[in-house]
Amino acid sequence: MKQTVIRFSVSIPSQLAHDFDRMMREKGYHNRSLAVADMIRDQLVEHQQQLGQDEIAGSITLVYDHHRHHLQDLLTDLQHEHRAVIISALHCHLDHDNCLEILAVRGHPAEIKHLADELIAAKGVKHGKLVITTTGKNLPA
Amino acid sequence: MKQTVIRFSVSIPSQLAHDFDRMMREKGYHNRSLAVADMIRDQLVEHQQQLGQDEIAGSITLVYDHHRHHLQDLLTDLQHEHRAVIISALHCHLDHDNCLEILAVRGHPAEIKHLADELIAAKGVKHGKLVITTTGKNLPA
Amino acid sequence: MKQTVIRFSVSIPSQLAHDFDRMMREKGYHNRSLAVADMIRDQLVEHQQQLGQDEIAGSITLVYDHHRHHLQDLLTDLQHEHRAVIISALHCHLDHDNCLEILAVRGHPAEIKHLADELIAAKGVKHGKLVITTTGKNLPA
Amino acid sequence: MKQTVIRFSVSIPSQLAHDFDRMMREKGYHNRSLAVADMIRDQLVEHQQQLGQDEIAGSITLVYDHHRHHLQDLLTDLQHEHRAVIISALHCHLDHDNCLEILAVRGHPAEIKHLADELIAAKGVKHGKLVITTTGKNLPA
Questions:
Q1: Which residues of B touch C (CB under 8 A)?
Q2: How far is CA D101 from the centre of its chain?
Q3: Nearest Cβ partner of C91 from B66, B88, B96?
Protein backbone atom coordinates (compact mmCIF):
# COMPACT_ATOMS: atom_id res chain seq x y z
CA MET A 1 0.00 0.00 0.00
CA LYS A 2 1.43 3.31 -1.08
CA GLN A 3 1.38 5.86 1.72
CA THR A 4 0.61 9.49 1.06
CA VAL A 5 3.62 11.74 1.43
CA ILE A 6 3.56 15.28 2.79
CA ARG A 7 6.09 17.87 1.73
CA PHE A 8 7.01 20.90 3.85
CA SER A 9 9.93 23.27 3.98
CA VAL A 10 12.27 23.91 6.87
CA SER A 11 14.53 26.91 7.57
CA ILE A 12 17.53 26.37 9.82
CA PRO A 13 20.81 28.23 10.47
CA SER A 14 23.29 27.49 7.68
CA GLN A 15 26.00 26.15 10.02
CA LEU A 16 23.51 23.72 11.51
CA ALA A 17 22.41 22.62 8.02
CA HIS A 18 26.05 22.03 7.12
CA ASP A 19 26.69 19.93 10.25
CA PHE A 20 23.46 18.03 9.61
CA ASP A 21 24.52 17.14 6.06
CA ARG A 22 27.89 15.85 7.26
CA MET A 23 26.34 13.77 10.07
CA MET A 24 23.74 12.44 7.62
CA ARG A 25 26.44 11.21 5.25
CA GLU A 26 28.45 9.72 8.12
CA LYS A 27 25.35 7.85 9.23
CA GLY A 28 24.77 6.61 5.67
CA TYR A 29 21.65 8.54 4.74
CA HIS A 30 21.30 9.48 1.11
CA ASN A 31 18.71 12.24 1.53
CA ARG A 32 17.54 14.63 4.18
CA SER A 33 13.94 13.46 4.16
CA LEU A 34 14.86 9.95 5.33
CA ALA A 35 17.12 11.38 8.03
CA VAL A 36 14.43 13.77 9.27
CA ALA A 37 11.81 11.01 9.25
CA ASP A 38 14.01 8.79 11.42
CA MET A 39 14.68 11.60 13.87
CA ILE A 40 10.95 12.21 14.20
CA ARG A 41 10.30 8.50 14.86
CA ASP A 42 13.00 8.50 17.53
CA GLN A 43 11.43 11.45 19.31
CA LEU A 44 7.93 9.99 19.03
CA VAL A 45 9.04 6.85 20.83
CA GLU A 46 10.50 8.88 23.66
CA HIS A 47 7.55 11.24 23.77
CA GLN A 48 4.96 8.47 23.84
CA GLN A 49 6.52 6.62 26.75
CA GLN A 50 3.61 6.50 29.08
CA LEU A 51 4.24 8.17 32.39
CA GLY A 52 2.39 6.86 35.41
CA GLN A 53 0.79 8.81 38.24
CA ASP A 54 3.41 7.97 40.88
CA GLU A 55 5.67 10.70 42.13
CA ILE A 56 8.98 10.65 40.32
CA ALA A 57 12.37 12.27 40.81
CA GLY A 58 14.86 13.20 38.13
CA SER A 59 16.94 15.83 36.44
CA ILE A 60 16.67 18.25 33.54
CA THR A 61 20.01 19.10 31.91
CA LEU A 62 20.23 22.22 29.73
CA VAL A 63 23.01 23.94 27.77
CA TYR A 64 22.42 27.49 26.61
CA ASP A 65 24.05 30.79 25.79
CA HIS A 66 23.18 33.22 28.57
CA HIS A 67 23.78 36.20 26.27
CA ARG A 68 20.77 35.20 24.19
CA HIS A 69 18.26 37.99 24.59
CA HIS A 70 15.57 37.38 27.24
CA LEU A 71 16.47 33.68 27.41
CA GLN A 72 17.50 33.68 31.03
CA ASP A 73 14.44 35.67 32.09
CA LEU A 74 12.25 33.18 30.28
CA LEU A 75 13.95 30.14 31.83
CA THR A 76 13.71 31.64 35.31
CA ASP A 77 10.06 32.58 34.86
CA LEU A 78 9.22 29.06 33.70
CA GLN A 79 11.07 27.63 36.68
CA HIS A 80 9.33 29.87 39.19
CA GLU A 81 5.93 28.91 37.76
CA HIS A 82 6.80 25.24 38.21
CA ARG A 83 8.77 25.67 41.43
CA ALA A 84 6.56 23.08 43.14
CA VAL A 85 8.40 20.34 41.21
CA ILE A 86 11.90 21.88 41.25
CA ILE A 87 14.07 21.05 44.25
CA SER A 88 16.84 23.35 43.08
CA ALA A 89 18.97 24.21 40.08
CA LEU A 90 22.72 23.80 39.70
CA HIS A 91 24.27 26.33 37.38
CA CYS A 92 27.78 25.93 35.93
CA HIS A 93 29.49 28.65 33.90
CA LEU A 94 31.18 26.65 31.13
CA ASP A 95 32.84 29.52 29.30
CA HIS A 96 32.21 33.18 28.55
CA ASP A 97 28.92 32.35 26.83
CA ASN A 98 27.70 28.88 27.64
CA CYS A 99 25.91 27.67 30.73
CA LEU A 100 25.23 24.15 31.92
CA GLU A 101 22.12 24.16 34.10
CA ILE A 102 20.83 21.07 35.84
CA LEU A 103 17.50 21.02 37.66
CA ALA A 104 16.77 18.47 40.35
CA VAL A 105 13.06 17.73 40.07
CA ARG A 106 10.49 15.81 42.03
CA GLY A 107 6.75 15.50 41.71
CA HIS A 108 4.00 14.56 39.30
CA PRO A 109 5.35 13.06 36.05
CA ALA A 110 3.11 15.10 33.75
CA GLU A 111 4.12 18.45 35.26
CA ILE A 112 7.82 17.53 35.12
CA LYS A 113 7.52 16.39 31.49
CA HIS A 114 5.69 19.60 30.62
CA LEU A 115 8.32 21.77 32.33
CA ALA A 116 11.14 19.94 30.54
CA ASP A 117 9.41 20.33 27.18
CA GLU A 118 8.96 24.07 27.70
CA LEU A 119 12.55 24.62 28.82
CA ILE A 120 14.07 22.56 26.00
CA ALA A 121 11.86 24.22 23.37
CA ALA A 122 12.92 27.72 24.46
CA LYS A 123 14.72 29.47 21.62
CA GLY A 124 18.42 29.62 22.45
CA VAL A 125 18.56 26.42 24.49
CA LYS A 126 21.12 24.44 22.50
CA HIS A 127 20.47 21.07 24.02
CA GLY A 128 18.35 19.61 26.78
CA LYS A 129 17.53 16.23 28.28
CA LEU A 130 15.07 15.00 30.87
CA VAL A 131 16.09 12.05 33.03
CA ILE A 132 13.24 10.46 34.89
CA THR A 133 14.12 8.19 37.72
CA THR A 134 12.45 7.05 40.88
CA THR A 135 12.09 8.47 44.34
CA GLY A 136 13.48 5.13 45.43
CA LYS A 137 10.45 4.27 47.54
CA ASN A 138 9.07 1.55 45.33
CA LEU A 139 12.32 0.27 43.97
CA PRO A 140 14.16 -2.49 45.78
CA ALA A 141 17.92 -1.89 45.90
CA MET B 1 24.68 39.30 14.45
CA LYS B 2 22.15 37.86 12.03
CA GLN B 3 22.90 34.29 11.01
CA THR B 4 22.36 33.02 7.46
CA VAL B 5 19.44 30.65 7.19
CA ILE B 6 19.14 27.76 4.76
CA ARG B 7 15.78 26.54 3.51
CA PHE B 8 15.17 23.03 2.24
CA SER B 9 12.13 20.85 1.76
CA VAL B 10 11.38 17.51 3.36
CA SER B 11 8.98 14.77 2.28
CA ILE B 12 7.70 12.36 4.91
CA PRO B 13 4.78 9.94 5.18
CA SER B 14 1.59 11.83 6.02
CA GLN B 15 0.86 9.84 9.19
CA LEU B 16 4.34 10.62 10.48
CA ALA B 17 3.90 14.30 9.61
CA HIS B 18 0.59 14.27 11.46
CA ASP B 19 2.13 12.67 14.57
CA PHE B 20 5.06 15.07 14.35
CA ASP B 21 2.75 18.08 14.32
CA ARG B 22 0.87 16.84 17.36
CA MET B 23 4.07 16.11 19.31
CA MET B 24 5.48 19.48 18.29
CA ARG B 25 2.44 21.28 19.67
CA GLU B 26 2.50 19.20 22.85
CA LYS B 27 6.15 20.11 23.34
CA GLY B 28 5.36 23.79 22.86
CA TYR B 29 6.98 24.47 19.49
CA HIS B 30 5.30 27.03 17.28
CA ASN B 31 6.82 25.99 13.96
CA ARG B 32 8.35 22.91 12.39
CA SER B 33 11.69 24.57 11.65
CA LEU B 34 12.49 25.13 15.33
CA ALA B 35 11.44 21.59 16.17
CA VAL B 36 13.55 20.11 13.35
CA ALA B 37 16.55 22.28 14.34
CA ASP B 38 16.36 21.00 17.94
CA MET B 39 16.15 17.38 16.76
CA ILE B 40 19.23 17.91 14.61
CA ARG B 41 21.16 19.41 17.53
CA ASP B 42 20.11 16.50 19.71
CA GLN B 43 21.45 14.00 17.18
CA LEU B 44 24.64 16.01 16.61
CA VAL B 45 25.41 15.90 20.32
CA GLU B 46 24.91 12.14 20.41
CA HIS B 47 26.80 11.64 17.19
CA GLN B 48 29.78 13.70 18.36
CA GLN B 49 30.05 11.65 21.52
CA GLN B 50 30.30 8.39 19.68
CA LEU B 51 33.15 9.55 17.50
CA GLY B 52 34.69 12.10 19.64
CA GLN B 53 37.65 13.24 21.60
CA ASP B 54 36.12 16.68 22.14
CA GLU B 55 35.46 17.86 25.64
CA ILE B 56 31.87 17.24 26.69
CA ALA B 57 29.63 18.38 29.52
CA GLY B 58 26.76 16.53 31.11
CA SER B 59 25.14 15.11 34.19
CA ILE B 60 25.04 11.85 36.10
CA THR B 61 21.80 11.27 38.03
CA LEU B 62 21.79 8.68 40.83
CA VAL B 63 19.21 7.43 43.33
CA TYR B 64 20.44 5.41 46.29
CA ASP B 65 19.80 4.51 49.90
CA HIS B 66 22.39 6.27 52.03
CA HIS B 67 21.97 3.72 54.81
CA ARG B 68 23.44 1.04 52.60
CA HIS B 69 26.65 -0.03 54.23
CA HIS B 70 29.76 1.69 52.85
CA LEU B 71 27.87 2.93 49.80
CA GLN B 72 28.34 6.61 50.46
CA ASP B 73 32.04 6.16 51.22
CA LEU B 74 32.44 4.29 47.96
CA LEU B 75 30.58 6.91 45.91
CA THR B 76 32.59 9.73 47.48
CA ASP B 77 35.89 7.90 46.94
CA LEU B 78 35.04 7.31 43.28
CA GLN B 79 34.11 10.95 42.88
CA HIS B 80 37.31 12.24 44.48
CA GLU B 81 39.39 10.01 42.22
CA HIS B 82 37.65 11.46 39.19
CA ARG B 83 37.27 14.99 40.57
CA ALA B 84 39.01 16.38 37.47
CA VAL B 85 35.80 15.77 35.49
CA ILE B 86 33.28 16.62 38.25
CA ILE B 87 32.26 20.27 38.53
CA SER B 88 30.15 19.61 41.59
CA ALA B 89 27.45 17.37 42.98
CA LEU B 90 23.93 18.32 43.99
CA HIS B 91 22.53 16.16 46.74
CA CYS B 92 18.81 16.04 47.60
CA HIS B 93 17.43 14.19 50.60
CA LEU B 94 14.28 12.59 49.20
CA ASP B 95 13.10 10.85 52.35
CA HIS B 96 14.53 9.18 55.43
CA ASP B 97 16.49 6.71 53.30
CA ASN B 98 16.72 7.80 49.69
CA CYS B 99 19.05 10.33 48.11
CA LEU B 100 18.93 11.91 44.68
CA GLU B 101 22.45 12.89 43.69
CA ILE B 102 23.22 14.72 40.47
CA LEU B 103 26.79 15.31 39.30
CA ALA B 104 27.62 18.09 36.87
CA VAL B 105 30.50 16.78 34.76
CA ARG B 106 32.84 18.15 32.14
CA GLY B 107 35.87 16.70 30.40
CA HIS B 108 37.02 13.78 28.31
CA PRO B 109 34.13 11.56 27.16
CA ALA B 110 35.87 8.29 28.02
CA GLU B 111 36.64 9.30 31.61
CA ILE B 112 33.08 10.56 32.17
CA LYS B 113 31.60 7.38 30.71
CA HIS B 114 33.89 5.29 32.91
CA LEU B 115 32.96 7.26 36.05
CA ALA B 116 29.24 6.93 35.30
CA ASP B 117 29.57 3.19 34.74
CA GLU B 118 31.35 2.73 38.07
CA LEU B 119 28.85 4.83 40.03
CA ILE B 120 25.79 3.22 38.47
CA ALA B 121 27.21 -0.27 38.98
CA ALA B 122 27.87 0.34 42.69
CA LYS B 123 25.82 -2.05 44.82
CA GLY B 124 22.98 -0.10 46.40
CA VAL B 125 22.57 2.45 43.64
CA LYS B 126 18.95 1.88 42.64
CA HIS B 127 19.00 3.77 39.40
CA GLY B 128 21.42 5.92 37.46
CA LYS B 129 21.62 7.74 34.15
CA LEU B 130 24.37 9.56 32.29
CA VAL B 131 23.34 12.50 30.12
CA ILE B 132 26.05 13.63 27.74
CA THR B 133 25.59 17.00 26.23
CA THR B 134 27.87 19.57 24.74
CA THR B 135 29.96 22.37 26.17
CA GLY B 136 28.08 24.46 23.62
CA LYS B 137 31.25 25.56 21.85
CA ASN B 138 30.81 23.49 18.72
CA LEU B 139 27.06 23.56 18.53
CA PRO B 140 25.47 26.27 16.40
CA ALA B 141 22.57 28.03 18.11
CA MET C 1 5.42 50.30 40.32
CA LYS C 2 7.29 53.33 41.58
CA GLN C 3 8.00 53.16 45.31
CA THR C 4 7.82 56.22 47.54
CA VAL C 5 11.21 57.41 48.69
CA ILE C 6 11.99 59.11 51.99
CA ARG C 7 14.87 61.54 52.36
CA PHE C 8 16.58 62.28 55.67
CA SER C 9 19.90 63.72 56.70
CA VAL C 10 22.63 62.06 58.70
CA SER C 11 25.50 63.61 60.66
CA ILE C 12 28.56 61.49 61.32
CA PRO C 13 32.20 62.16 62.29
CA SER C 14 34.18 63.31 59.26
CA GLN C 15 36.81 60.54 59.53
CA LEU C 16 34.05 57.93 59.57
CA ALA C 17 32.40 59.59 56.57
CA HIS C 18 35.72 59.54 54.77
CA ASP C 19 36.29 55.83 55.50
CA PHE C 20 32.70 55.09 54.51
CA ASP C 21 33.14 56.79 51.15
CA ARG C 22 36.30 54.81 50.41
CA MET C 23 34.72 51.48 51.42
CA MET C 24 31.64 52.35 49.38
CA ARG C 25 33.71 52.93 46.26
CA GLU C 26 35.74 49.76 46.87
CA LYS C 27 32.52 47.79 47.15
CA GLY C 28 31.26 49.28 43.89
CA TYR C 29 28.45 51.53 45.13
CA HIS C 30 27.87 54.72 43.18
CA ASN C 31 25.97 56.64 45.84
CA ARG C 32 25.64 56.71 49.61
CA SER C 33 21.90 56.09 49.60
CA LEU C 34 22.24 52.66 48.01
CA ALA C 35 25.06 51.75 50.40
CA VAL C 36 23.07 52.89 53.44
CA ALA C 37 19.96 51.04 52.23
CA ASP C 38 21.96 47.79 51.91
CA MET C 39 23.43 48.22 55.40
CA ILE C 40 19.94 48.71 56.81
CA ARG C 41 18.67 45.57 55.08
CA ASP C 42 21.66 43.63 56.39
CA GLN C 43 20.87 44.69 59.95
CA LEU C 44 17.16 44.06 59.53
CA VAL C 45 17.86 40.48 58.48
CA GLU C 46 20.06 39.94 61.52
CA HIS C 47 17.65 41.72 63.80
CA GLN C 48 14.68 39.69 62.60
CA GLN C 49 16.53 36.45 63.27
CA GLN C 50 17.20 37.29 66.85
CA LEU C 51 13.57 38.00 67.60
CA GLY C 52 11.89 35.90 65.19
CA GLN C 53 9.61 33.05 64.45
CA ASP C 54 9.44 33.97 60.77
CA GLU C 55 10.60 31.48 58.20
CA ILE C 56 14.17 32.18 57.12
CA ALA C 57 16.41 31.03 54.28
CA GLY C 58 20.16 30.67 54.30
CA SER C 59 23.20 28.50 53.80
CA ILE C 60 25.47 26.27 55.84
CA THR C 61 29.02 26.04 54.50
CA LEU C 62 31.22 23.14 55.65
CA VAL C 63 34.75 21.98 54.89
CA TYR C 64 35.74 18.46 55.90
CA ASP C 65 37.93 15.49 55.10
CA HIS C 66 35.71 12.78 53.66
CA HIS C 67 38.22 10.08 54.66
CA ARG C 68 37.54 10.80 58.29
CA HIS C 69 35.97 7.65 59.68
CA HIS C 70 32.16 7.69 59.80
CA LEU C 71 32.09 11.45 59.25
CA GLN C 72 30.18 11.36 56.00
CA ASP C 73 27.66 8.86 57.36
CA LEU C 74 27.11 11.12 60.34
CA LEU C 75 26.68 14.25 58.23
CA THR C 76 24.24 12.49 55.91
CA ASP C 77 22.26 11.04 58.81
CA LEU C 78 21.97 14.47 60.42
CA GLN C 79 20.85 15.96 57.12
CA HIS C 80 18.21 13.31 56.50
CA GLU C 81 16.80 13.85 60.00
CA HIS C 82 16.49 17.56 59.31
CA ARG C 83 15.60 17.22 55.63
CA ALA C 84 12.46 19.34 56.19
CA VAL C 85 14.67 22.44 56.36
CA ILE C 86 17.26 21.43 53.74
CA ILE C 87 16.46 22.37 50.14
CA SER C 88 19.53 20.62 48.82
CA ALA C 89 23.26 20.28 49.31
CA LEU C 90 26.00 21.26 46.90
CA HIS C 91 29.10 19.14 47.23
CA CYS C 92 32.47 20.14 45.74
CA HIS C 93 35.49 17.86 45.72
CA LEU C 94 38.34 20.26 46.55
CA ASP C 95 41.20 17.79 46.44
CA HIS C 96 41.87 14.13 47.19
CA ASP C 97 40.72 14.54 50.79
CA ASN C 98 38.80 17.75 51.32
CA CYS C 99 35.17 18.50 50.54
CA LEU C 100 33.34 21.80 50.44
CA GLU C 101 29.67 21.19 51.18
CA ILE C 102 27.07 23.93 51.09
CA LEU C 103 23.50 23.36 52.24
CA ALA C 104 20.68 25.59 51.07
CA VAL C 105 18.25 25.79 53.98
CA ARG C 106 14.80 27.18 54.59
CA GLY C 107 12.44 26.98 57.52
CA HIS C 108 12.17 27.68 61.22
CA PRO C 109 15.17 29.60 62.60
CA ALA C 110 15.61 27.41 65.66
CA GLU C 111 15.73 24.15 63.70
CA ILE C 112 18.20 25.59 61.20
CA LYS C 113 20.42 26.95 63.97
CA HIS C 114 20.31 23.56 65.71
CA LEU C 115 21.20 21.68 62.51
CA ALA C 116 24.11 24.04 61.80
CA ASP C 117 25.42 23.64 65.35
CA GLU C 118 25.35 19.84 65.08
CA LEU C 119 27.04 19.74 61.68
CA ILE C 120 29.76 22.22 62.62
CA ALA C 121 30.44 20.45 65.90
CA ALA C 122 30.88 17.06 64.20
CA LYS C 123 34.40 15.73 64.74
CA GLY C 124 36.32 16.12 61.50
CA VAL C 125 34.49 19.16 60.20
CA LYS C 126 37.35 21.63 59.84
CA HIS C 127 35.31 24.76 59.48
CA GLY C 128 31.66 25.69 59.19
CA LYS C 129 29.51 28.79 58.95
CA LEU C 130 25.79 29.44 59.02
CA VAL C 131 24.48 32.36 56.97
CA ILE C 132 20.94 33.33 57.82
CA THR C 133 19.20 35.51 55.35
CA THR C 134 15.63 36.19 54.49
CA THR C 135 13.10 34.51 52.26
CA GLY C 136 12.78 37.98 50.75
CA LYS C 137 9.07 38.22 51.57
CA ASN C 138 9.33 40.72 54.38
CA LEU C 139 12.29 42.68 53.13
CA PRO C 140 11.54 45.77 51.06
CA ALA C 141 13.66 46.05 47.93
CA MET D 1 39.03 67.14 71.10
CA LYS D 2 35.90 67.93 69.20
CA GLN D 3 35.67 66.01 65.96
CA THR D 4 34.36 67.61 62.79
CA VAL D 5 31.00 66.28 61.75
CA ILE D 6 29.84 65.80 58.18
CA ARG D 7 26.18 66.01 57.19
CA PHE D 8 24.76 64.32 54.11
CA SER D 9 21.31 63.27 53.01
CA VAL D 10 20.11 59.80 52.17
CA SER D 11 17.10 58.68 50.10
CA ILE D 12 15.68 55.24 50.74
CA PRO D 13 12.37 53.48 50.02
CA SER D 14 9.75 54.53 52.54
CA GLN D 15 8.97 50.99 53.73
CA LEU D 16 12.66 50.43 54.42
CA ALA D 17 12.87 53.74 56.30
CA HIS D 18 9.88 52.70 58.38
CA ASP D 19 11.42 49.30 59.23
CA PHE D 20 14.71 51.03 60.02
CA ASP D 21 13.06 53.40 62.49
CA ARG D 22 11.34 50.53 64.28
CA MET D 23 14.54 48.48 64.49
CA MET D 24 16.45 51.56 65.69
CA ARG D 25 14.01 52.08 68.54
CA GLU D 26 14.08 48.37 69.44
CA LYS D 27 17.86 48.53 69.56
CA GLY D 28 17.69 51.64 71.76
CA TYR D 29 18.98 54.30 69.39
CA HIS D 30 17.57 57.77 69.82
CA ASN D 31 18.51 59.16 66.43
CA ARG D 32 19.25 57.87 62.96
CA SER D 33 22.73 59.37 62.76
CA LEU D 34 24.03 57.27 65.64
CA ALA D 35 22.47 54.14 64.19
CA VAL D 36 23.94 54.80 60.75
CA ALA D 37 27.37 55.52 62.23
CA ASP D 38 27.36 52.19 64.08
CA MET D 39 26.35 50.30 60.96
CA ILE D 40 29.20 51.92 59.05
CA ARG D 41 31.71 50.95 61.77
CA ASP D 42 30.43 47.37 61.69
CA GLN D 43 30.93 47.14 57.94
CA LEU D 44 34.38 48.75 58.10
CA VAL D 45 35.58 46.08 60.51
CA GLU D 46 34.40 43.33 58.18
CA HIS D 47 35.71 45.09 55.10
CA GLN D 48 39.15 45.70 56.56
CA GLN D 49 39.73 42.11 57.57
CA GLN D 50 42.95 41.47 55.75
CA LEU D 51 42.81 38.62 53.32
CA GLY D 52 45.97 36.66 52.69
CA GLN D 53 47.31 35.36 49.41
CA ASP D 54 46.51 31.69 50.01
CA GLU D 55 43.81 30.06 47.95
CA ILE D 56 40.52 30.03 49.79
CA ALA D 57 37.16 28.33 49.37
CA GLY D 58 33.80 29.64 50.43
CA SER D 59 30.27 30.60 49.52
CA ILE D 60 28.36 33.68 48.46
CA THR D 61 24.68 33.65 49.49
CA LEU D 62 22.28 36.02 47.71
CA VAL D 63 18.54 36.71 47.92
CA TYR D 64 16.94 38.66 45.10
CA ASP D 65 13.77 39.25 43.15
CA HIS D 66 14.29 37.72 39.71
CA HIS D 67 11.61 39.99 38.23
CA ARG D 68 13.79 43.01 38.85
CA HIS D 69 14.65 44.42 35.44
CA HIS D 70 18.02 43.28 34.05
CA LEU D 71 19.12 42.00 37.46
CA GLN D 72 19.52 38.40 36.44
CA ASP D 73 21.43 39.32 33.29
CA LEU D 74 23.77 41.45 35.36
CA LEU D 75 24.34 38.72 37.97
CA THR D 76 25.03 36.13 35.28
CA ASP D 77 27.39 38.42 33.39
CA LEU D 78 29.35 39.14 36.57
CA GLN D 79 29.54 35.43 37.31
CA HIS D 80 30.77 34.52 33.83
CA GLU D 81 33.49 37.16 34.04
CA HIS D 82 34.67 35.68 37.32
CA ARG D 83 33.95 32.06 36.40
CA ALA D 84 37.57 31.15 37.23
CA VAL D 85 36.70 31.40 40.94
CA ILE D 86 33.15 29.99 40.79
CA ILE D 87 32.80 26.23 41.10
CA SER D 88 29.08 26.36 40.53
CA ALA D 89 25.90 28.09 41.63
CA LEU D 90 22.93 26.56 43.42
CA HIS D 91 19.67 28.31 42.66
CA CYS D 92 16.51 27.82 44.75
CA HIS D 93 13.15 29.26 43.78
CA LEU D 94 11.76 30.46 47.12
CA ASP D 95 8.44 31.80 45.90
CA HIS D 96 6.96 33.46 42.83
CA ASP D 97 9.44 36.35 43.07
CA ASN D 98 12.34 35.55 45.34
CA CYS D 99 15.44 33.50 44.58
CA LEU D 100 18.06 32.13 46.93
CA GLU D 101 21.32 31.73 45.02
CA ILE D 102 24.43 30.26 46.58
CA LEU D 103 27.77 30.28 44.79
CA ALA D 104 30.50 27.82 45.72
CA VAL D 105 33.77 29.67 45.18
CA ARG D 106 37.44 28.82 45.23
CA GLY D 107 40.53 30.83 44.35
CA HIS D 108 42.35 34.02 45.14
CA PRO D 109 40.86 35.91 48.11
CA ALA D 110 40.94 39.34 46.45
CA GLU D 111 39.04 38.19 43.37
CA ILE D 112 36.44 36.39 45.46
CA LYS D 113 35.97 39.45 47.71
CA HIS D 114 35.64 41.65 44.65
CA LEU D 115 33.06 39.35 43.04
CA ALA D 116 31.02 39.20 46.27
CA ASP D 117 31.09 42.99 46.61
CA GLU D 118 29.85 43.47 43.06
CA LEU D 119 27.07 40.91 43.38
CA ILE D 120 25.85 42.23 46.72
CA ALA D 121 25.97 45.85 45.54
CA ALA D 122 23.82 45.07 42.49
CA LYS D 123 20.55 47.00 42.67
CA GLY D 124 17.77 44.58 43.49
CA VAL D 125 19.85 42.13 45.52
CA LYS D 126 18.03 42.24 48.84
CA HIS D 127 20.68 40.61 50.94
CA GLY D 128 24.02 38.94 50.42
CA LYS D 129 26.81 37.41 52.48
CA LEU D 130 30.28 36.11 51.72
CA VAL D 131 31.59 33.20 53.79
CA ILE D 132 35.30 32.66 53.46
CA THR D 133 36.60 29.36 54.63
CA THR D 134 39.60 27.21 53.85
CA THR D 135 40.39 24.68 51.17
CA GLY D 136 41.24 22.44 54.11
CA LYS D 137 44.83 21.89 53.01
CA ASN D 138 46.47 23.92 55.72
CA LEU D 139 43.97 23.29 58.43
CA PRO D 140 44.40 20.33 60.74
CA ALA D 141 41.13 18.58 61.49
A1: 66, 72-73, 76-77, 79-80, 83, 86, 88-93, 95-97, 99
A2: 13
A3: B88
